[in-house]
Specification:
Helix content is about 75%, strand content about 0%. It has about 550 residues and is mostly helical. The protein is globular and about 70 Å long.
Length: about 550
């Protein structure tokens, strides 16, 4: 144990654990290595990812390092409902995107990014808005995961934070560089199996070592009324509602998800994403229970840092062997997300930047592959540098989240409504971002008519979120009815109330403002778009037809 009470491994032990994980992962990728990789295989595995691989990859990618710490923090802060409000809404992000994903695949069956589809629909400016939001999100995610690796290594061993960051970066790049997305998906499957096996062992082990379910029941006496209430309004408004609002934004704005929508066999999209929803929800809610256990036994996080909760609980109640398993669990989760971020970034640069804007739809496949691999190297170096600075990423996350919220409505309606124009798309995002900043940072005095206007826009945003979700599953009429009922309810009950939760108001304003501007500009337009053009404009980049031997079948299994 070190002075903070954490289990302390020797340098040799940690290096052996890291070598075993990254070495084993690298050896796995040798099974699918091809002498000549094609762009389709490198970016979306040739659109031939099956159900099992797809579901495992989606689950592993969505569980990143922050899932561990944020889920436990939610359980510790909000009590019995905290793990649900974190894990459930995160899981629904996966579920609610699949109806729209099927539409994306129908419009662009040979697509690689959502940006390509939007480029075919509207042109370069709309596409670049989407590409920039994807790049920012992936770079931030990469930095967060490398930072988590450095912090974990420095806490559990004599190695420095920078050494942990460097090892994780080099390890992830080594097994992703050659085969790109195919390597990411293939290793995700193995990593998820390990994640589930270890989580199934560690979570019950902590529970019973801490005293079993009886301790959890007795711990209710230590909680506040809000923490002991499964339907806590405090948890709903501060944790559940902001996450619920972000459901569609994260799904639309994150290339790691849309990449898998274009990679999974079209007939397996529904089953893949439903299974991933269940897998993610079960694992993350379980991790959140560790935070609830810490609250129940009256544990105080060391130095007041919530990120210490899980390693503190594991070190306190379990033997060093379990702590080593926990170490592998976290390294596996952050690596699976980091390799997906590298694949996402390389695909954006290959297809959206080089393919569509530099080569003007006439790219050289060899140059394209080079662009993808160089992007991975540059992104890894950038992630390592940013992670070593230990930057406060909150402000960046705020802007990226707002940008994702602002593009949800324009992106989705552009795939269904033939009258939406490029100007409507672009200006709706610009206006929504400006109004978001005013509300989020209270650049105007939020009183009187001003705050009422933002509450009305937020109410429209709430209606947009609910309406789109219902529309995705039940169609246009049901979506419009749901949106109308939500708008009426929010105008009646939320006006004068939402102003106490300005973070939520700002997020909903991004949805509402973009929907109002996009709809208004579209209604005055006389343009009509032929959706069949998208299929003809978004094609494969390889000279030869796709070679099915590039699918995720190990060479030894053929």
């Amino acid at each position: 144990m070190n002075e903070n009470g954490f289990t302390q491994f020797s340098t040799l032990t940690v290096l052996l654990l890291l070598a075993a994980f990254y070495g084993g992962t690298y050896l796995l990728t040798l099974l699918i290595r091809k002498d000549k990789e094609d762009t389709s295989g490198f970016m979306v595995a040739g659109h031939h990812v099956g159900f099992g691989m797809g579901a495992a990859s989606m689950t592993a990618t969505w569980i990143w390092a922050a899932s561990f710490y944020a889920a436990a923090t939610s359980g510790y802060t909000y009590g019995v409902s905290g793990p649900i409000h974190y894990g459930l809404w995160g899981a629904l992000m996966i579920l609610f995107i699949y109806p729209f994903g099927r539409r994306f695949r129908k419009l662009a069956p040979n697509g690689h990014t959502l940006g390509e589809l939007i480029h075919a629909r509207h042109g370069a400016s709309s596409q670049m808005i989407l590409a920039i939001s994807n790049i920012l999100g992936s770079v931030i995610s990469l930095m967060v995961n490398f930072t988590a690796a450095g912090a974990l290594v420095s806490v559990l061993s004599p190695l420095s934070f920078e050494a942990g960051v460097l090892i994780a970066g080099v390890g992830v790049l080594a097994y992703t560089l050659t085969s790109g997305f195919r390597a990411s998906v293939f290793t995700d499957f193995a990593q998820l199996v390990a994640l589930m096996a270890i989580a199934i062992i560690i979570i019950p082990a902590v529970l019973f070592s801490a005293g079993g379910p009886e301790v959890m029941v007795q711990g209710l006496e230590l909680m506040t009324d809000e923490q002991a209430n499964l339907f806590s309004m405090d948890a709903i408004l501060n944790q559940g509602a902001p996450f619920f609002v972000a459901v569609l934004a994260y799904a639309i704005g994150n290339q790691t998800i849309s990449q898998r929508l274009f990679a999974v066999r079209e007939s397996h999209i529904k089953s893949t994403f439903v299974t991933a929803t269940l897998g993610y929800g079960a694992i993350v809610i379980g991790l959140g229970m560790i935070g609830l256990m810490a609250l129940s036994v009256g544990m105080e996080p060391i130095d007041g840092k919530m990120n210490n909760l899980i390693p503190q609980m594991v070190s306190t109640y379990l033997s060093p062997i379990f702590v080593a398993l926990f170490f592998v669990l976290v390294i596996g989760s952050l690596s699976s997300t980091a390799d997906s971020d590298l694949s996402a970034l390389s695909t954006i640069m290959m297809a959206d930047v080089y393919g569509k804007n530099i080569a003007r739809n006439n790219p050289n496949p060899k140059v394209m592959m080079l662009v993808g691999r160089i992007t991975m190297i540059v992104a890894t170096v950038a992630g390592l540098i940013f992670a070593s600075f230990s930057l406060d990423i909150l402000v960046m996350l705020v802007f990226v989240g707002a940008l994702w919220g602002a593009i949800v409505f324009p992106v989705i309606v552009s795939c269904y409504w033939d009258r939406v124009t490029n100007a409507a798309f672009t200006w709706s995002v610009v206006v929504a971002m400006a109004l978001f900043c005013i509300a989020r940072f209270e650049l105007l005095e939020m009183t009187g008519a001003t705050v009422t206007v933002f509450e009305v826009l937020a109410s429209v945003g709430g209606a947009v979120v609910i309406g789109l979700m219902v529309f995705g599953f039940l169609g246009r009429a049901a979506g419009l009815v749901a949106a109308a009922l939500t708008l009426i309810a929010m105008l009646i009950f939320a006006t004068g109330f939402l102003r106490d939760y300005m973070v939520l108001v700002a997020s909903l304003t991004a949805y509402g403002a973009s929907a109002v501007v996009c709809t208004a500009m579209t209604l005055i337009s006389s343009e009509r778009f032929d959706f069949d053009l998208i299929k003809r404009r978004v094609g494969d980049y390889d000279d030869a037809e796709f070679d099915d031997s590039g699918s995720l079948v190990a060479e030894g299994a053929k």
